[in-house]
Amino acid sequence: MLRLTVALSLSLCFTQAANAADLDALLNQERYGEFLPKAESAAAAGDAQALFLLGKAYHLGQGVDKSEALAKSYYEKARAAGSARASHNLGALLMREKRSDEAIPLLEEALQRGLLMPTLINLGKAYSPSDLDYQMQRHGGVVRAERAGDYFVQAYEQDADITSLMQASRNYLQAYLALRNNHFSASTEDDRDRLRGKALAGLKMGMARDNAKAWSNYGVMLLEEQDFNGARQALLQGAERKVAVAHYHLARMAAKGLGLPAVDRQAEAYHYEQAALLGLPEAVRPAVSRLEEVLRYETDLAALEEGVNRLSVLQAAGGDGLRAGSATSRLEWGRFLQSQRQQAKALPDKPLYLQACGLDLGQLYGSTYNLGSNTAWRLQVYRSLDKPERLSINGHVDEDGCATLLEPLPERIRVSLAEGAVLALAFPNFTLPLAIKEGEDRLRLDMQAIELPIPSF
């Protein structure tokens, strides 16, 4: 009789396991017409697996209308019946609502009931501290970070997914740097050494797998420890693998000459630009600013045009609030000079005078550029985007709003104009180019059309 009872008990266990597997298969195969009646029947008898799967069906809207309330109800019943997956999913729902502290007991219950994955990953996420914990210098954030790292390491041991390893090392590294850079009364040197060791172990494993984030984070750690040469080499590895943060830190290092013989503005501009193009919002504004600085002294028109195109891409990444116009103005001025050289020709054999008007406050150029009578001016010659030649010919705007010379201009100025150079009036805040206008008995230098480019430096 005893043997018969044991045999019946074993048979019952195998049948329940088979039914559970059958229900899982029906739901996964989307055979909802067969799944629902069988699951509801088993759930009515208190079967934990059936209760969980019905909760999952309502959670995801599989074969039924999606209902989080019904999903939670079934999950709670399944949890009471001992379902590890129900405990996990209830915790995951709380995490989605950003209620990690409430999720942790449920996730730990799922772990105790034997559900290792993905419970370990979600416990790592739940324990990961927020940036505010570090900003407020709360030692509890460091404790949570180490706990999170430990869970991610266990997850990595179950399934060697590099993401879990990087999450672990990131938490360890943040905790180590928090202890290193802030004063926490509860911390000790042993705490710092332990966390650094855990972070380094994960980073080395990641670097051995050629993980870009591992290289970058290792570089950040060395940078914080002021090993600038080591930091730069590690960050370059991350940058080669298109990690925005690696480029960002390389830009900041180049700005200070850290790990380099001297400050390198070209490298700073390049790395900020790459970080911005890779999607790091903090890099956009300095990228535009540094590239503008580099282009401010660019004299090659093709290189300047290519730089302006790069600026346009950066400005698009920065949104409508970001504008950068000096390089564009310089390009327009360079193109204008080029066109003047291309149109160069010998001047008519007539004396050349300066009589440029419209410069008083109530006149076109004066009101546009805030000039007026008695404003000082000096003649300058522009042949290219290099610095202009400053002539020793100067004066002041007269009461009629004109810059006038009574004597003809020297022959060397006529030669420069015949070669395609542009003569301009340099005022304290603006420089305005001049145009040659021919009269019956003379040539006159007057103002260019106001819509044409002006020198931009």
Rg estimate, integer Å = 37 Å
Task: List the strand order in the largest sheet.
Answer: 3-2-5-6-7-1-4
Proportion of β residues?
A: 5-15%
Q: Provide the low-confidence segments as ranges.
A: 1-18
How is the main sheet built? 7 strands, mixed
Concise structural overview:
With 457 residues, the chain is of the alpha+beta class. The protein has helices at 2-28, 32-44, 48-60, 68-80, 84-96, 100-112, 119-127, 131-135, 139-158, 162-181, 189-208, 212-224, 228-240, 244-256, 265-277, 284-295, 301-318, 326-342, 364-369, 411-418, and strands spanning 352-356, 376-382, 389-396, 403-404, 422-426, 431-438, 443-447.
Describe the protein.
Helix content is 61%, strand content 9%. With 457 residues, the chain is an alpha+beta fold. Strands 3-2-5-6-7-1-4 form a seven-stranded mixed sheet. Strand 6 (431-438) and strand 7 (443-447) form a beta hairpin.
